[in-house]
Amino acid sequence: EVAGCFDPSVQAIADAFKKQRRAATVPIKHVFLVGGYAASDFLYQGIQKHPAFAGVRNKAVADGAVSFHIDHFVTSRTAKFTYGVGCSPHYNSNLTDHWERRRTQYISPSGRIMLPQGFASILLKGTQVSEQQEFRQVLVVERYSRSEFTSIEMSFLAYRGSLLKPTWMDEEPASFTKLCTVIADTSRLVNSMRPQRSLNGGIYYSLDIYVILLFGLTELKAQISW
Fold first, then answer.
1. What are residue 137's DSSP bridge partners?
2. pTM over 0.90
3. Could you report the per-residue pLDDT of 38-90, keeping only the tens digit for each?
4. What is d(CA 45, CA 20) in angstroms, rounded to the nearest whole number?
5. What digits encode the pLDDT tens for the residues 80-118?
6. What is the dihedral of CA 118, 122, 126, 132, to 10 degrees?
7. Cα–Cα distance between 168 and 84 in angstroms, integer?
8. Burial class, 176, CB count within 10 angstroms (exposed 0-12 / middle 13-18 / buried 19+)
9. Is 75 left (phi over 0), alpha (psi -120 to 50) or beta?
10. DSSP string, 102-145
11. Measured between alpha carbons, how far is 10 from 22 in angstroms, rounded to an integer?
């Protein structure tokens, strides 16, 4: 009785297969069913008995071959985009692009001259990526008081433009897409942070952090460590 419930599905699949076979310009040698429903033994048995699928080989062989190919494919792949985070590089008047941005410069808590709208790449487009391989970039976070270090927020971005290693986000703003925002609880570090003397004689605090990307089988993980 249960098997009979699958008859309409089997017939619908058979009709779709015959339609595809008539429209194809080359002989169809393989048929793959995907999704959770395709794993049903009742459905598979119905297909095996249907004349439209005469000659279909053992399901386990096909499943194994497809699984091997997919697993191998996702464990070694190439990054389609450049991934990174926004940053503020130190101003260097010897660099042409810095000189052109001199009017946007500002003074950081440490007293250094900085430029906004920078981009720090973590993973470049075209890089070969293995399963669970870690990519990281070091950044320095500066603030005027320890109370500002209760948390650190960082947005991870994907650059979809044509440049291999973009350095400024405002040159192609439409090419940058936010992937996620990570907020790290750093409140336990506050009391252990020591004051530092800035270049202009003031007091500031800083923390070296790593922004990290990991590529799993089916997801991208973003982390902050210190």
1. 211
2. no
3. 677 777 777 777 777 765 544 444 455 555 555 554 556 788 899 999 999 99
4. 21
5. 899 999 999 999 999 999 999 999 999 999 999 999 999
6. -160
7. 12
8. buried
9. alpha
10. GGG-EE-TTS-EE-SSEEEEEE-TT-EEETT-EEEEEEEEEESS
11. 18
